[in-house]
Amino acid sequence: MGIIMRNILSLLVVAAVFFCSTALAEGAMKNKKIIQLDPSDLEAVELYAVEDHSFMKVIGGENPVAGGLTSFQSNDGKLDVGFYHGSKVTLRINGWPVDEVMVFLEGQVEIINEDGSSKIYGRGDALVMPKGFVGIWRQLGPIKKINVSYPGQ
After folding, report:
1. DSSP state of 133
2. CA atoms of 129 and 148, how far apart (whole Å)
3. Rg of the chain over CA atoms, in angstroms?
4. What confidence tens digit (pLDDT) does each residue in 67-112 have?
5. What is the pLDDT of residue 18?
6. Do 81 and 147 contact (CB within 8 A), yes or no?
7. Which CATH architecture has domain 39-150?
8. What is the pTM of this model?
């Protein structure tokens, strides 16, 4: 191989390494600072009427309202971290659309599984609601929670 060809190949390798490392560095720089989760941010959230969706139906509660905010979303848009605030409501859930970790900050929720077993969760309790969950979600009064969700495959 001639000296000119080796120099061209060397330049191409250096350029490829430079562009790849720059692209990787830019991607790695997104969302790399600490995000503080402050429940007081919920005070500015507007609450809206709770509506039926393909995966849940309102079956109880007088004019229930809810609102939330996303504090962090992963670069691929799949992992969400945020807060939820809602009034007294009962929902029939049929195929929850995401895997969701919840940590309750205020209030209580009774969750009734498809087999009829139930548990009440309150302040300080944490749970995972798996994607596809079927059951009843009954907010016994106003609640606030931190939620981390991932849609999976």
Report:
1. -
2. 10
3. 23
4. 999 999 999 999 999 999 999 999 999 999 999 999 999 999 999 9
5. 35
6. yes
7. Sandwich (2.60)
8. 0.77
